[in-house]
């Protein structure tokens, strides 16, 4: 039999190979905790440093202790990578947590992304528990309740994006949306990084209210260039500064997703996609992307099989004219056209019959 060479078959093989690569990609980071007690396996998957501790029978994590100049940090033991191997696929992620801060003017709270070599158990009095004496690649979203002129803070109620420096590259006044970070009330934060458009967004609202449509802070940044293929640790960090401010975390969800560079992804809400997850696990790839790939693969494979079958028949029968039963042969006929007169019995005049 002659060798089969079909563009559709090659395309099907290419898509199938791509699909398998997506499935075999390095595990991304996904977790969701609404309870931090022993039954949730939180402490087996996260590390607590400094004055951070699980409080209220597992209902919260208290980031800073009861006293002046305390600091704490909680970090995930499993690192993540923002670039997937040789394929250079980039990673989008969404982070969501509920928190509160007492009314003192402390250094506040920060969501942090740190290199794997960061000394997590070391504190040097830096704002929000960060180290200020070491030069390293880090990213932090600060929820700051202290105006520090040394770092150019706009007020004592702002969020800022810090990139490799405690001086924020972008700052937003929380008072502009009628919120107070250290009101003692529960607030919820959404932090999204969309890798395709290289967009970093932060949203903030009262606990129980809907996710705002417009971000409070938005900034263009390419995290894949910042860290390349280095492992990154995600966590939360806090410092009371020269006050006795307490910061508490009541729930925390995180979801990352590897997306080929030719595909577009949108920021996600982890509350929607990891509602009941309480363990680190390999997340399922985007249902939408997989369904599209599955449909393409199925259709292409079917097309390839059809082409293969046609080639098979052509190989066997060559150029022989197919035999068609007489009753199914097309008969040539002339068609006659007749004119039809169409009449209407009654006409409608002035809107009446």
From TrEMBL:
The chain crosses the membrane at residues 292-317. InterPro entries: ConA-like_dom_sf, Lectin_legB_Mn/Ca_BS, Legume_lectin_dom, Leguminous_Lectin. PROSITE patterns: LECTIN_LEGUME_BETA. Gene3D superfamilies: 2.60.120.200. GO terms for molecular function: carbohydrate binding; kinase activity. Keywords: Kinase, Lectin, Membrane, Receptor, Signal, Transferase, Transmembrane, Transmembrane helix. It comes from the Eukaryota. Residues 1-25 form the signal peptide. Residues 29-266 form the Legume lectin domain. PANTHER family: CONCANAVALIN A-LIKE LECTIN FAMILY PROTEIN. Belongs to the leguminous lectin family. This is L-type lectin-domain containing receptor kinase VIII.2. The lineage of its organism: Eukaryota, Viridiplantae, Streptophyta, Embryophyta, Tracheophyta.
């Amino acid at each position: 039999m002659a060798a089969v060479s079909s563009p559709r078959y090659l395309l099907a093989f290419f898509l199938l190979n791509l699909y398998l690569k997506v499935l075999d990609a390095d595990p991304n980071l996904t977790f969701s905790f609404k309870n931090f007690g022993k039954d949730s396996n939180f402490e087996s998957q996260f590390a607590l440093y400094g004055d951070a501790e699980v409080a209220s029978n597992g209902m919260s994590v208290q980031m800073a202790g009861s006293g002046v100049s305390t600091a704490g940090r909680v970090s995930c033991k499993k690192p993540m990578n923002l670039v997937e191997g040789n394929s250079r696929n980039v990673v989008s992620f969404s982070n969501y947590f509920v928190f509160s801060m007492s009314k003192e003017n402390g250094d506040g709270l920060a969501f942090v992304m740190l290199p794997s070599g960061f000394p997590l158990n070391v504190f040097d009095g830096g704002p929000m528990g960060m180290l200020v004496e070491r030069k390293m690649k880090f990213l932090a979203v600060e929820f700051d309740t202290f105006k520090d002129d040394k770092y150019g803070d706009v007020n004592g109620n702002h969020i800022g994006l810090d990139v490799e420096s405690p001086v924020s590259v972008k700052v937003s006044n929380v008072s502009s949306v009628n919120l107070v970070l250290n009101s003692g009330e529960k607030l919820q934060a959404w932090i999204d990084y969309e890798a395709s458009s290289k967009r970093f967004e932060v949203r903030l609202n009262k606990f129980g209210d809907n996710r705002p449509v417009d971000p409070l802070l938005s900034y263009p940044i390419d995290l894949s260039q910042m860290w390349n293929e280095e492992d990154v640790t995600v966590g939360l960090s806090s410092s009371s500064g020269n006050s006795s401010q307490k910061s508490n975390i009541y729930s925390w969800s995180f979801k990352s997703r590897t997306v080929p560079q030719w595909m577009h992804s949108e920021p996600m809400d982890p509350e929607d996609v990891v509602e009941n997850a309480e363990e680190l696990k390999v997340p399922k790839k985007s249902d939408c992307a997989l369904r599209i790939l599955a449909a393409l693969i199925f259709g292409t494979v079917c097309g390839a099989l059809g082409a293969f079958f046609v080639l098979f028949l052509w190989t066997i029968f060559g150029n022989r004219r197919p035999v068609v039963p007489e009753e199914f042969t097309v008969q040539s006929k002339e068609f006659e056209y007749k004119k039809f007169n169409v009449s209407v019995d009654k006409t409608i005049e002035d809107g009446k019959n």
